[in-house]
Amino acid sequence: MNKSLKIIFIAIGATVTGFCYFAWQHHWIILNIPWNTTIESQTVYTKKKCIIHLWRQGTWTQESVELLWSQREPFNVQQLTQAAFSLLAEEYATKQKVVVEQVLMHHDNQQLLIFLNNTPLEKNMSIHIKLMIIESVLKTLRANDIKTPWLNFLVHNQPLGDTHLSFTQPWPLAGFVNAKT
Q1: SS3 content of the chain, % helix, strand, coil (to 5)
Q2: pLDDT score at 75
Q3: Domain residue spans of the chain
Q4: For domain 40-172, is the CATH number 3.30.300?
Q5: Contact, 62 vs 75, CB < 8 A?
């Protein structure tokens, strides 16, 4: 093999290696190292009585439900949010059932991303009812000791779309309504 062919192979190898390193640094390539991952089967699930807050006929009401609970906050938020949306769907007779597909923790541990299959807010609802539906979910999470301060509601991997309320920015878990329980 002549000298120029060796130089070409070394240059190609260095370019591919450099590109792979660049892609890994920019999270285009994700490596799951087996000794660095947690095993999901070790998570312990228990039953817990949880309080779901609902806005009914101009006042806050509470419903007690028993849900699966774990040490993982995203799992607990998924359980609570699904229970809240199910009760809210009965209350407001929404056309489409809302399923919480997944809840993920943002890398900074300050935001939860809540992925829904449909919007819980209908076009014919008043702004007040829409706000109370979202506040019901926020109040439910607060009542059950969820600590993550910000929530993003997403439908089909996009911010929840509504003509009256904006979901392009995260919603504070503290909520906006200053009402007594």
Answers
A1: 35, 25, 40
A2: 93
A3: 3-36, 40-172
A4: yes
A5: no
